[in-house]
Design goal:
- It is a single chain.
- This protein is an alpha/beta fold and 332 residues long.
- It has two domains: 59 residues, DNA polymerase, domain 1, CATH 1.10.150; 252 residues, Aldolase class I (TIM Barrel, Alpha-Beta Barrel).
- The chain contains ten helices and 14 strands.
- The two termini are 30 Å apart.
- 42% of the residues are buried.
Length: 332
């Protein structure tokens, strides 16, 4: 049966007409799906019984709960969702004044970054917008969403943009785009995101030198980090929208003064920030993590040279929920 979750207002209006309802019932469906977030047609009480029965015969809402939860000592929670015989993971990160959800956009990933456990899974499919939204709608207290789970969001650009429209449109959840950040390793489809969405962008850099980056991130050969930055400089980042660069630190491999100077040169004149990330060595011992002292030196050098830089706090490592550790398995 066809799923309603993930349909736009225009599509829901067509659905209404297809089952004999008036066009305005499409707006009612949108409210039930995206504002009240119901999981079955019987709850849609302002739609006639006949209309609800007609909807049931042809459609399903598309909501389902996770099949497993893991809880970290720091309060982070990881959820396993079943998707068509495969599995994906989402990570809920509570803080004092906010609750962030890290959502997946694909089953596995085809980008092949050597340091990422998700990349070892290979690629098994794009998530439809319904499955992206289903992860989000399981929670009712979220303040922020980051598209930083399994998969490369820009490689699933149609479904990602559809989910972002529904999250931010007046007919949908009406969230401010400032509450949503979408990540990318930097591929050509990123341009569509920049043109069609006002959400924040996070670019996985991890090395400013093209030749070195290509050895750990094959996507460098598709769109180099230099080309990514050049593209970003065509856009206005001075007001509501923000661009940041994610940078996992490895001892002696990308945390040297040489790398810091190149980042400063590369990002000159771009209004952005750099987030330094501690590496979790369980992924690959070939990547020794930088120590705290070196990361602080790296941060201070960039900040002193005009690049706002922070060291991102690591969460959920003990349940394999931290950056680069998602590997959705039913046995997790």
């Amino acid at each position: 049966m066809e799923v309603l979750l993930g349909k736009t207002l225009a599509e829901l209006q067509d659905v209404a007409l297809s089952v004999g309802l008036q066009k305005f019932a499409g707006k009612q469906l949108a409210e039930w799906l995206y504002v009240r977030r119901v999981s079955d047609f019987d709850a849609m009480t302002n739609i006639s019984l006949k209309g609800r029965e007609a909807l049931k015969a042809r459609y399903t809402v598309g909501r389902h709960d996770p099949i497993r939860e893991a809880v970290s000592v720091d309060g982070t929670r990881k959820y396993l969702f079943a998707v068509g015989g495969q599995f994906i993971e989402s990570v809920y990160i509570p803080e004092e004044d906010r609750a962030t959800l890290c959502v997946s956009t694909q089953v596995g990933c085809k980008m092949g970054c050597r340091f990422c456990m998700t990349g070892t899974l290979g690629f098994h499919g794009h998530l439809p917008a319904a499955e992206i939204l289903n992860q989000i709608f399981y929670f009712d207290d979220l303040t922020n969403i980051v598209y930083m789970g399994e998969g490369e969001p820009m490689d699933n650009i149609d479904n990602v943009l559809r989910s972002l429209e529904i999250m931010t449109a007046p007919y949908g959840c009406a969230w401010s785009p400032k509450r949503i950040t979408v990540s990318t390793v930097g591929i050509p489809a990123m341009k569509r995101f920049l043109e069609e969405s006002d959400c924040h962008l996070a670019v996985s850099m991890h090395n400013p030198f093209a030749a070195e980056r290509a050895t750990i991130m094959p996507a460098e050969k598709m769109l180099s980090i230099t080309e990514v930055v050049a593209l970003l400089k065509h856009y206005d980042w001075s007001h509501q929208r923000r661009v940041s660069f994610e940078y996992i630190c490895w001892h002696g491999q990308n945390d040297t003064i040489r790398h810091a100077k190149e980042i400063t040169r590369l990002l000159k004149s771009l209004n952005c920030r750099v987030n330094l990330i501690r590496f979790h060595e369980g992924v690959d011992r070939a990547f020794p993590a930088s120590d705290e002292k070196q990361m602080e030196f790296f941060r201070d050098y960039l900040t002193d040279n005009g690049i706002t830089t922070t060291i991102r706090r690591s969460r959920g490592e003990d349940i394999l929920a931290a950056c680069g550790l998602l590997a959705a398995k039913a046995s997790c």
